[in-house]
Every structure is written in structure tokens, then in C-alpha cells.
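Page 37, continued from 36.
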């Protein structure tokens, strides 16, 4: 038998995408074309969003778990509940927790109906334990379906219940002051090089 066999393709391996492909979906596209289809067990337009239990990892570990992405990463995640019969989600992670900020933003369908198809919640990652956690620059947008958008048309119960899956977009916010300092530092280096030459 050969000593070196190529590893089997992984479930999260990158899909075959055309050159120059960019994935910048709108909130509505994420809910209607990805999350709603995932909840209904319907094939997705492209297999580009990895399934990861986000709360088993810290945010800086997530980019390597993603199927695709450079500055922002998308995941389907099961929505774990804090208490078995409660409605509150459990958002504790390995070395911190995700804290919701602001109010939920409704996601409306475009077109003449303008029905509410989902909800977007913004969260920030804090290191440590509440209420004394230290705020980080890691941000999550959590998309979930509304009751109307997840209801089945048959009398049979839907294959998943509301909030079994959420779709999350994770990114690290760049500190504008630090970015400005870095830019000024680069400009100074350039002017010093110009002066020397």
C-alpha cells in the first residue's frame, strides 16, 4: 500500500468558486437565501457557510473554522438555550461571553410585500466573566428567523423549531485611532526614505 495518501476532503473545505468571487450578501439575502433554506433543509445556493457551534470557541479561533472569508466570516450555529425550557440563549464561550448591544433590527423583504423575514442582533465579545468582562473588538451579527418566515405550509410540524439555527457574521473591528497612528507612521517612514534618497 502507498505510504502517502492524500487526506480525504474535509466537510468544511473551501467550495469551488469562480475567480474574483466575493461574498457580500445583504441582510435580506442572508436570511432568505441561506438561513431560511437551512432551516427548511433545502439546498443552499452555494455551500460557503460552515456549520460551527460558535460558543465552543473564542472568536479569534473562528476564522480557521470558516469555509470562506478574509475580513469577515459566516457561520450557521445551533442556538443553545441557557435553560432547557427557557427562551434566553446561552452565549458563554471558552474564555468569555458575547453580550448583546442595542436593539434588534428587523430585516424586511424587498418588494411590494415588505414582510418581516428575520431579525439581526449585534453582539460584542467580552473576555472574562460577567459583569466584569473586558470588551474586545470582536463583533457578531446574529441573524434569526421570525415566526412568520419559519412557519411550514403543511399541518405537519416544521423540520426544525424556530431558532434551532442562527446565521452569524463575525469580524474584528479595527480601532480607527490605532489605524490612523499606523498610517501616520507609514507616511513618516516614506518621507524619511524620500529625504535620504
Amino acid at each position: 500500500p502507498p505510504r502517502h495518501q492524500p487526506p480525504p476532503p474535509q466537510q468544511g473545505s473551501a467550495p469551488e468558486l469562480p475567480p474574483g468571487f466575493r461574498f457580500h450578501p445583504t441582510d435580506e439575502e442572508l436570511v432568505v437565501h441561506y438561513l431560511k433554506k437551512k432551516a427548511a433543509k433545502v439546498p443552499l445556493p452555494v455551500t460557503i457557510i460552515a456549520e460551527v457551534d460558535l460558543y465552543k470557541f473564542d472568536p479569534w479561533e473562528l476564522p480557521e473554522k470558516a469555509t470562506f472569508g478574509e475580513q469577515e466570516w459566516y457561520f450557521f450555529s445551533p442556538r443553545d438555550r441557557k435553560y432547557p425550557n427557557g427562551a434566553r440563549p446561552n452565549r458563554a464561550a471558552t474564555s468569555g461571553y458575547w453580550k448583546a448591544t442595542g436593539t434588534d433590527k428587523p430585516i424586511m423583504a424587498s418588494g411590494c410585500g415588505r414582510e418581516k423575514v428575520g431579525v439581526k442582533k449585534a453582539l460584542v465579545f467580552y473576555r472574562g466573566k460577567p459583569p466584569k468582562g473586558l470588551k474586545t473588538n470582536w463583533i457578531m451579527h446574529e441573524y434569526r428567523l421570525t415566526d412568520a418566515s419559519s412557519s411550514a405550509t403543511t399541518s405537519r410540524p416544521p423540520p426544525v423549531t424556530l431558532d434551532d439555527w442562527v446565521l452569524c457574521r463575525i469580524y474584528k473591528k479595527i480601532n480607527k485611532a490605532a489605524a490612523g497612528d499606523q498610517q501616520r507612521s507609514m507616511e513618516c517612514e516614506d518621507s524619511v526614505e524620500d529625504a535620504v534618497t
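The chain has a mean pLDDT of 77. Flag for discussion at group meeting. The domain at 27-196 is CATH 2.170.150.80 (Metal Binding Protein, Guanine Nucleotide Exchange Factor; Chain A).
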